[in-house]
Amino acid sequence: MSKQFDVIVIGGGPGGYIAAIRAAQLGQNVACVDEWKNSQGGPALGGTCTNVGCIPSKALLQSSEHYEQASHHFSDHGITVKGLSMDVAKMVARKDTVVKQNNDGIQYLFKKNKVSFFHGRGSFVKASADGYEIKVAGATEETIVGRHIIVATGSNARALPGTPFDEELILSNDGALRINAAPKKLGLIGAGVIGLEMGSVWRRLGTDVTILEGLPTLLGVVDDQIAKEAKKAFDKQGLKIELGVNVGEIKTSKKGVTVAYTSAKGEAKTLEVDKLIVSIGRSPNTIGLNVEAVGLKLNERGAIEVDADCKTNLPGVWAVGDVVRGPMLAHKAEEEGVAVAERIAGQHGHVNFQTIPWVIYTSPEIAWVGRTEQQLKADGVAYKAGTFPFLANGRARALGDTTGMVKMLADATTDEILGVHIVGPMASELIAECVMAMEFRASSEDIARICHAHPSLSESTKEAALAVDKRTLNF
């Protein structure tokens, strides 16, 4: 007799494990199926984000940032460092420890919330009178049945056509996070989040880094003014970024990787590197899910088709996160997971796609929420803009990091905040105030009238709000 559950979640990443916990909190009998394995073959809950994405990349970024500070900036504070060196193996080991702490934390949360965990690959078998049969293929094979199924199987790195990942020379985000020594030369294809973050890690450790980007501008989804400010900072740091290139043949040898490409000016060029990271986007992961067995509908991108409530074409089957439409962000997946669990329980779960924050954890950090200036122009929206540079912020000066600015966009008539864009120190933390303000449909005047602690970086947000009305006090 197969074990029966109210809810079965397939996938233990941010969308999946959060959905499972929230459903259990709401009184459902819940199972979560996830196949990710650690180096010992045991479960490694947390999906791409925890294992080969958000968490390990931030650990490496933090380590490399400490090294950069000690190498180039401690002297500004009167601190002399002699015999500085970087133990890359130890840095990677620390990253692995951080990942394991998160893996173990999710297992603890499952036990705390009485979520049944099945270690293996989950796939559809058939619809039944009690819901849907799900096969779990792990150390042993078993079948469980769920009244509701939440698919949260995430996404996979896209490879260049004809150039598969070998994770030794041609690396996805997975292999990029397992480099155990600083390469002399590193190439990256794609100047998106992964490209810029991984490029930053190794550039700080002395690697000659070149990023090739097919688009004519850097970070096309980012506000133009902010992207240009970030590009200036990256150029100054020595991160080589070539835009508008057309990548051709890629060859590997014992010496490394050779990339033939055409520059934006039409010149034939060659890039020779020790390793090549390919970060050209991700594809929804439905491999082995056996959607055909139940008739679960996919769209032309291979993503599971869902409506605004994350319902699929099948009754009782839901999907969240990277495997559906919308931005491939861990926190977006989490919000969808919570909303679906609440809808299953008869509540009114809600996700506001207009106030999902985005962050790139480079130095300077880049964060934004809402629409960009170019989007507002394209939409024909009359707006006001206010900017404030960190150069004029007392806390930023004390930190020794005055790169960048805060930019606020507000409706010209109502003054409602339409977007906030930040490049600079701790942008990832500063953006939260702006997300909350937009959720409450605040005006720029609201933030301008709120008392912010002095000295703090958040004063720059207040000053940008004041700048919308052309009345900054410190610039």
Explain the overall architecture.
This protein has helices at residues 14-25, 47-52, 54-73, 88-112, 173-176, 193-204, 224-237, 330-344, 373-378, 394-399, 427-439, 444-449, 459-468, and strands at 3-10, 30-34, 116-128, 131-138, 141-151, 155-157, 170-171, 185-189, 208-212, 240-242, 246-253, 256-262, 268-273, 275-278, 282-284, 317-319, 358-360, 365-370, 383-389, 405-411, 417-424. With 475 residues, the chain is an alpha/beta fold. The protein has 3 domains: 3-157 and 283-351, FAD/NAD(P)-binding domain (3-Layer(bba) Sandwich); 170-280, FAD/NAD(P)-binding domain (3-Layer(bba) Sandwich); 355-468, Enolase-like, domain 1. The chain has a 5-stranded mixed beta barrel with strand order 1-2-3-4-5. The protein has a 5-stranded parallel β-sheet with strand order 7-14-8-9-10. 46% of the residues are buried. The mean pLDDT is 97. It catalyses: N(6)-[(R)-dihydrolipoyl]-L-lysyl-[protein] + NAD(+) = N(6)-[(R)-lipoyl]-L-lysyl-[protein] + NADH + H(+).
